[in-house]
Amino acid sequence: MEFRQRLRVAAAVVAVVMIVVGVTAFVIDSGVSGAGPSTDWQNRTPPPEGDSVLVPTLKGSASLRSGPPETPGAKSPSPSPKLSPTPRPAGFAVSGSSIVYYTGDGTIVPVPAISGLRSTLVSGKVIYSALAGNPYNLKIGSYAGEFRPNVTMQQTDGSTAQTGGIAAAGPVVRRLISDSLADLSESSGRWVVALPVDIRSSNDRVDVTFDSFGLHGWSDTPRVAVRFVGQLPVVNAIPDNSGFHVLVEHLGVTAWQVIDPLRLTLSQTELDPDHLMNQLLIYGNGTASTGRDVLVDEHVDLGRVMLTAADEVSVSLVVRTSRADLGPDRVLQVGDVPVFVASS
User: What HEC string does 23-53 produce?
Assistant: First the structure.
């Protein structure tokens, strides 16, 4: 009887031990498989592509992802960059210490600096004013010109570039011409064309082009042509002039022309090295503001209005035996920006 009682006690002890061991094993197994992300993702077979798997996050929340989990530290792919720049309205803007013009297609046209002048953006326009000690004998702060962005110029390779244009006051043009001529070593080449059209009132495109269809009677003279919309003032652009003669011919190809009276005293068949600028001819085939000849036989300032004309104004060096080339290098420029003469 005592033996059976001991056997029952032993069996009970063994049962309790087995229960304790089982509970412990269950707790340990639960701690490994359910607490935190698994440390054996690389050895597991990933789910088929397109399936979803719940990946626990480090914060204990869950997110739904497609395919196998991300590699720790990997970044999500960035959105593809736009292939074209973000469009911006056309207009002037200050860029650092400079002013630039943004065209409608994103082209940037810089406003050139001119020695002795300050450029200022005022009400959508770039105005040049005189600084102290400027070489143009202008009073400090006085108006010296304007930058116009709507100008294109034909380049030496035949292409066209939107360069903008400077409409400069007479004293500024005079000095720029003098400096340009000083850089020309050959006496037969000491001439330059300051474009004799005041473009400041034009909001349309102005084109500067070059060809060999200039007319001084033979239709074979190199010329620079300024083409525009409407009518613009044609002004004196020859510093050492003796006046101007406007001849209204109504011939179509030269409806009008302007010559320096000094040219009438020079040879018509030879270039005069001392008066090359006086042998420039200004002409056009559009409507002129005057219906008759105008004769002024005394020196006039640069920028003096001679007439207003429509559509096109051309300039050639027209001496009968001369076929002097006229390209971008013959146009008065600041950097690569052509200089027009502002009316005064």
Answer: HHHHHHHHHHHHCCCCCCCCCCCCCCCCCEE
Strand-pair partners of 196: none
Please, are residues 122 and 108 in contact by the beta-carbon 8 Å criterion?
no
Q: 167 CB contacts (<8 Å, ≥6 apart)?
A: 145, 146, 147, 148, 198, 199, 200, 340, 341, 342
How are beta strands 280-284 and 256-259 bridged, if at all? antiparallel
pLDDT at position 27: 38
Tokens representing 285 are: 């085939």
The predicted pLDDT at position 221 comes to: 81
The β-bridge partners of 100 are: 93, 110
Mean pLDDT per segment of 10 residues, for the chain of length 344 residues? 45 45 41 40 37 33 36 40 57 89 88 96 95 97 97 92 96 96 78 96 95 66 92 96 92 86 88 88 89 94 96 87 79 96 95
C-alpha triplet 146, 149, 155: angle, nearest 5°: 115
146 CB-near residues (< 8 Å, 6+ apart): 125, 126, 127, 128, 166, 167, 200, 342
Per the structure block, which two tokens stand in for 316?
């050639």
Domain boundaries, the chain: 152-341
Q: What angle do CA 343, 285, 344 make, to 5 degrees?
A: 5
65 vs 61: CA distance, rounded Å: 13
